[in-house]
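Work Package 3 (structural annotation) set out to generate three-dimensional models for the target panel prioritized at the project kickoff. During this period the team completed the workflow that converts sequence records into C-alpha cells, so that structures can be stored uniformly alongside our sequence database. As a representative example, we reproduce one entry of 509 residues exactly as it appears in the project archive.
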Amino acid sequence: MMRTLQFYQNVLAFLCVLLAAAVTAAEELAGPVQLPVEIAGGYLVVPLDMAADNGNPEELALLLDLGSPDTVSLARIAHSLLGLGKASVLTLTNETNNQLSVPVSDIGLYENKRELDEISRLHNDILKERKVAGVIGYGLLRQYRVTLELAEKKLTIENAQPGVAIQSLNADVVLSPVVKQGEVPVLPLVLANGEQSSMLLGSRGKDSYIGTNLVAQFDYPDNTVGAVTIAGALPGMAVNLSEYVAFRPAQFADKYKVKAAAEGFQSGINLLSHFRIVFDDANNYLALTQVKAADFPYEDLAYFKARTVGDSEALRSYLSKYPDKRLSKEAAELRVQWLLAEGRSSEDIYQAVSQVIDLTQEMRRAETAHHYIVELSNLPDVLPLLEDIGKLGISFSGAALDGQLTNYIYAELGLQAYKQGQLKTAWEYLLSAAFGRPEDLRVTLALGRVYEQQKRYRRAYARYKAVASQPYYRLGLDKILTAPVLNACIDDAKVAMKNIAHKVPELER
C-alpha cells in the first residue's frame, strides 16, 4: 500500500515538472521585445498594443512601476474593453511583432482609475491619444532579462540565458545576489559616515527620495548628506549616487507614493535616467552602467532648502534666482499656498498665481486659472481677485485643450458674484456660462435665484423648472459637477418652484 502511494506521488511530481516546463516553454519569447518608454511628468509610460486570446489589438499604454511586485494590473474598464473575462492570455505587442504573453490569471485589478485618466488627459500630446490602462510591475520583468535605457527611451525584454558569469558583464556596478524587499529589488548603500542603508528601486516621480530619519540625522538639506555609494559584487565597483541628484526629503513628497518615507532612499526618474539598468533574476544580478554624466542639480537643492525655511519670502528668493528651472512651477504653486496662510494681500496672491500660470504649458494656462478661481472662491470679498485671474485665464483659452474653459470660468465668476450679492454682475457671467454649458445645473439654478430677486418670476420659474425636470444623477459629470452636487441642485430647484408658483400664471407652470 505504501509503495503504491509513493508511486503515485512520484508520478504526480513528475507531471508537475512537465507542466512547469510546458508553462515556461509557452512563455519563451520568439525574439527580443523592444518597447518605447516615454517620460510623462513623473511617470514612465509604455505605449503598446494589447489583445486577449489573439483578438483585435487595442492601442493603449501602461505605466512602468519598478516598485510594484505585480505582473500587470489593469483598470476595470480595460478588463472589459479587452474581454479578459473569457480570455486566457493577454498579449503585449511591439512594432517588430514580437510579443509578450501574460496569463490572464496573473493580471490584477488597478483600482485608481482616476489617476490613469488624469495621466492620459495631462499627457495626451506624449501618448498620442492612447489611454493609460494600468501598470507593468517588476513581477513581470523578473521573468526575463530586462534592459531599461531611459536615455534611449526604450525597454528591452528578452529570454534570460542561464549561466551568465558576472565577471563577463561590462557594467560599472553589478549587484549579485540581488536583495529583495517585498519582491522588488533593493540597492545596498554605504553612507559617508560608514553606516549602511538601502534604496528601493522605484520609478514613480521625477525625484529620488531620502527618508525622514536620514533627513534628521544629517540635518539635510541644510547640510550635505555626503557620499551615498552603491558598491558592486566585484572589487573596484562603486558609484556615488549623490553626485547625480539632490535627494528630495520624503516629507516633501506631495504627489507620488514614497515607500521609503521613514528610512533609506528611493530612486526616481532623475536618477534612473543616468544609467542603463539590466535586471536578470534567472542569474540573480542587477547591473548599472552610466550612460549620462553626473551633473549635480544645485537648483533642486536650493529649492529643498528654501522649502525647509517655511515662508513665502524664501520661495520668492528661490524664484528670483531660478525663475524657469524644473522645480520653479512647484515652488510658485507652494508660494501661493504660503501667501494665503500668511494672510497676504490680493495683489500679492494675484502676482503669485500669475507666475504659476506663466510657468504652465500654454495649453494648460486657462485650466490653471480656472483651478485657482475654484480654490480661492471661499475667501472673503474675493470677486475682484477672481475676475483678474479669470481675465488672465480667458486670454489663453484659445490655446486650451478644452474649448469649454471660458464657460467654466464664467460659471465660477457668476456663482461668486451671486454669493456676494452683485446681481447684475452675476447675471452677466451666468448668462454667458449658461449658453455654453447648459449641463451645469448650478448655473441655471443661480440664474433662477437672480431673476427671483429681481422679481422676474416667470423667468425664475422657467430656470427652476429646467433644473427640477432633470432625472437624478447616479454618476457625476466631472470633478466639480459630482452626482451629489447636481442632485442637490435638482432638490433646491423643486423647492424654489413651489415657493414662487403662486406668482406665475398657471398656464406657464
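Confidence is low (pLDDT under 50) at residues 1-26.
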